[in-house]
Amino acid sequence: MQGLLRTSDAVSPNVTVTDVVGSLTLLALIYALLFVAWLRVVTGIIRKGPQGVADSLGGTDQVDPTPTATV
């Protein structure tokens, strides 16, 4: 068969199992740190509440929370 790549031909002899495990571990660690940072930011926003976030963004307009009925 022509045009197909066999798995045995695609394997690199220069990449060891230790290299693969190290790369995956480092990638997982980076994603875990990014998740913790994201979680801290979101938790801070939730603790401030909607008014605290509006104040920090410089919003001064107050919205009437009473819904208006439209027919």
Q: How would you characterize this protein structure?
A:
Helices cover 62% and strands 0% of the residues. It is elongated, with a radius of gyration of 26 Å. The chain has 71 residues and is mainly α. The protein contains two helices and no strands. The chain has helices at 7-10, 17-56. The protein has a domain at 17-47.
Question: What does this entry show, briefly?
Answer:
With 71 residues, this protein is mainly α.
Portion of residues within helices: 55-70%
Strand % is under 5%
Class by helix and strand content?
mainly alpha
Kindly report the average pLDDT value: 86
Q: How many strand segments?
A: 0
Oligomeric composition of the shown chains: single chain
- Terminal Cα span: 71 Å
Shape assignment? elongated
Biggest β-sheet strands, sense, barrel: none
Which stretches are poorly predicted, pLDDT < 50 over at least 5 residues? none
Order of secondary-structure elements = HH
Helix tally equals 2
Please tell me how large the radius of gyration is.
Answer: 26 Å
Fold topology:
Elements: H1 7-10, H2 17-56
Short key terms for the protein model shown above:
single chain; 71 residues; mainly alpha; 2 helices
